[in-house]
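quick one: zinc ion bound model?
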Amino acid sequence: MTNYLSDMETKKCFKCGVVKPLSEFYKHPRMEDGHLNKCKECTKKDAKTRYNILSTDKNWLEKERVRNREKFKRLGYKDKFKRIRKICPLESNISRRLRNRGYDTKGKEAHHWNYNLPYSIFLLSRKAHRCIHQFINVNYLDKYCYTMDGKKIDTVEKAISVFSSILKSNGINEELKVLNISL
Ligand SMILES: [Zn+2]
Ligand SMILES: [Zn+2]
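yep, here:
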């Protein structure tokens, strides 16, 4: 009942004084009715005015640019690495297989060069692993990795050559060896 009523509810914007449906007010958890007292239109107008005033300040503009750039970077990275952990995990299965073969997995991550071959992996430090992923794209449909200029990494030889040049150009010295842990 209350839900039904709240859809129909209206309120008066304190700024422009117009009575509008609740959907014309931004949601705000701290407000008694869960919405701001200023309508969306007035809120947008005020934000724009604020921006116009602040943007005449060069220092503010530069700070804002840096802030946005960092925010974008942060979110982008976070999202990308969450996906990497999902597709290049050192999950118990792979970790056990490696340990059984005498590999030291401490501080290492398994990097797949071809997701069609889940047991063909590189054992890398986190740093090297992240570095490689910054310079390749994973195609989630065909499950292959691609270089930034679109070349498909479809053989182990290509994988080693692409990955090692990525690491080298980023000053990371790490041996690249494919481990086959399917057997
Ligand atoms: Zn208003
Ligand atoms: Zn990986």
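The helical segments are 2-8, 40-54, 58-87, 92-100, 126-134, 156-169.
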